[in-house]
Amino acid sequence: MARWLLLGMTLLFAAAIVFPSMHPGDVFATLGLGSVAIGFAFKDILQNLLAGLLLLGTSQAGLAADLLYTVQPGDHPWNVAERYLKNPAMALALRHLNHVPDERRIQPGTQLRIPTEWLKLESTQVTLLAVAGDTTLSQGNRAARAAVAGELLQAPSVICTGPDGSATLQFADGSRVMVRRDSELQLQTSQKSVLGSTNAVTLSLVRGQVENQVIPMGKNAGRLEIRTPAATAAVRGTWYRVSVDGQTMRTEVVDGAAQVANPAGQVTAHAVQGTLAQSGRGPLAPIALLPAPSLDGLPETLERLPIAWPITALAGASRYRTQLAATPDFNAALSDEVTDTARIRVRDMADGSYVLRVRGIDAQGLEGLSAERTLDACLTAELEGMMFVGTTRDWQEGVEAFAEKRTPIFMEE
């Protein structure tokens, strides 16, 4: 009899979670426990039991990240749960976790611990902060079109970059994700808690590479999750890169930490570490990333293209990546090339000031720390020594055509 009673209570409590309009008080009324004859003591025991079941159903990761809420006049567990938690039934667990003796009153000024995993979420928009080259966007069931910098996105959306493309997404908490060339990234969810400033973002990297800077905001930092066919990387405040090639995923952590997991296992890569995961196999133990290469001795001004500058070889590097951007925040990569030898390569650019970024790539394909420096391009100087046969207008048009080349060429050897 006791077993059937427990089963019935569990089913009714589950119904209260599945159907938010069903108040937990209805559960007790259904069981006949609202009667004075049953006794308040037995009712409290059942409430504690149901609260315990809910606490057991919450992951330890959620309990580890708590938000502190200061109670306002008129607050009690039920209306706090109604306003801020995923389900009003969580009032039982909230009361149990914080040892609140009265279910209808809490002393104003009291601080309640609320696991961030319990918080109610609402959808947020994502800003397409920067776009370069061939980059397309599709939202919902709409056909793909050219992406435009500054527009707002909502999940679900898909960003695709071509051989000369890149794009940067900015989320509600200021975190950014740069989609590199030849990549496809799906925005699956972008949400923010109605209480506090906790963000939850889920992305799916189908192919290609992304560079991520997740803004840390204390112990309640948001969670950014990147799913790939091989594994999932999840972080709370860090700077890291993820790439996927078929069934292989690579994760490189520049700062902070990232947890990489799949059904075969999980590891945590810390700052200046990387790991590799393949479908059906657990992620490899994290290894140290290559240090930044030396850019000493490189010229500060460029007057001729293409760039093919040799640099000092980096021990352990089998390839090198060179990236070029117009601003230090690297919102859009105007050039992104890989070489098999220790040299910097840029094929095309216009006059202006740039930021050059170079890093080594080890035998497993993990990219190391980046070296950066500024570079000024004055390419029209190359034309000054050339001899033109024609009119003054021919000369002016030639200079303008040379100076206005803005479509970079991206190639890998």
Description:
Helix 3 (40-56) packs across helix 6 (91-98) and helix 5 crosses helix 6. With 413 residues, this protein is an alpha+beta fold. The protein has 8 helices and 27 strands. It has helices at 2-18, 24-30, 40-56, 60-64, 77-84, 91-98, 381-384, 392-403; strands at residues 66-70, 111-115, 121-123, 126-132, 135-139, 145-146, 152-153, 157-161, 166-170, 176-179, 184-193, 199-213, 223-227, 232-235, 239-245, 248-255, 257-262, 265-270, 273-278, 287-288, 301-302, 307-310, 319-325, 333-339, 343-346, 352-361, 371-377. The strands form 4 sheets. It has an 18-stranded mixed beta sheet that branches. It has a 5-stranded mixed beta sheet with strand order 21-27-26-23-24, with no helix packed on it. Strand 5 and strand 6 form a beta hairpin. The model is unreliable at 12-64, 382-396 and 398-413 (pLDDT under 50).
Give the key terms.
413 residues; five-stranded mixed sheet; disordered C terminus; 8 helices; alpha+beta; single chain
Summarize the structure.
The protein has 413 residues and is α+β, with helices and mostly antiparallel strands. The protein is 19% helix and 37% strand.
* Helix share, percent: 10-25%
**What value does the Rg take, in angstroms?**
28 Å
Q: What is the average per-residue confidence, as pLDDT, rounded to a whole number?
A: 81
Strand content: 35-45%
First-last Cα distance: 73 Å
Low-confidence stretches are 12-64, 382-396, 398-413
Q: Say how many strands there are.
A: 27
Envelope shape = elongated
Q: What's the tally of helices?
A: 8
Structural class: alpha+beta
| Main beta-sheet annotation | 18 strands, mixed
